[in-house]
Amino acid sequence: MSYGDAMNARAKSAERRAEIVRAALEVIAERGYRGASLAAVAERVGLTQQGLLHHFPTKDALLVAVLEERDRWDAIPDSRWPIDLLASLVEYNAMRPAIIQTFSALLGESVTEGHPARDYFTARYARVRAGMADVLRAEYGDTLPNGLTPERTAPLLVAVMDGLQYQWLLDPESVDMPGAFRDFVTLLGER
């Protein structure tokens, strides 16, 4: 096999893996992780289950790929993000219900012992809380106008963002996710 052929084969394999991850996102959004099967994902991309296992040897490996792909789409905020940009992130999420549904389904399932995404979400939330505290500190300093520290406020900010996502997924016509988030930001206090 020539170098060009090898590069072409790698590119096709990467494209196929990306297609499988997108299909897995859809299946998990519809059925949850426990209800999603490798066979259902394989069928959606026109592969046999054995063909899918060539790319992802286990269901857990596929789950990790799904979560990593989602994180590539959503950068975790750092202190360079102004708080107003978080509202833009909420607006962006409102345009991607399938991604939010998948994330929410996996998050809900991950609280059970032994779930393969539990460690991922535990570590992710530690990073997100730290990032949110950095954003708040850059915006307000060591104490917010409401008297709380960035570290005490960060879990509340994350809880509001995730809680709004759940409410919006259940009743998108009644819940203005971006508007409600902007309302919460006003509760943090005047800058």
Q: Could you estimate the helical fraction of the residues in percent?
A: over 70%
Please report the total strand number as a whole number: 0
Put simply, the count of helices is: 9
> How would you state the average pLDDT, rounded?
86
Give me the strand/helix succession.
Answer: HHHHHHHHH
> What class would the helix/strand composition place it in?
mainly alpha
How far apart lie the N and C ends?
63 Å
Shape: elongated
The low-confidence parts are none
Largest sheet: none
The amount of beta strand, in percent, is: under 5%
**Rg, Å, rounded:** 19 Å
Question: Describe it for me?
Answer:
The structure is a single chain. With 191 residues, this protein is mostly helical. Helices cover 74% and strands 0% of the residues. It has helices at residues 3-35, 38-44, 49-55, 59-73, 83-93, 97-110, 118-140, 150-170, 177-187. Helix 1 (3-35) packs across helix 2, helix 1 packs across helix 4 (59-73) and helix 6 (97-110) packs across helix 8.
Helices and strands, with pairings:
Elements: H1 3-35, H2 38-44, H3 49-55, H4 59-73, H5 83-93, H6 97-110, H7 118-140, H8 150-170, H9 177-187
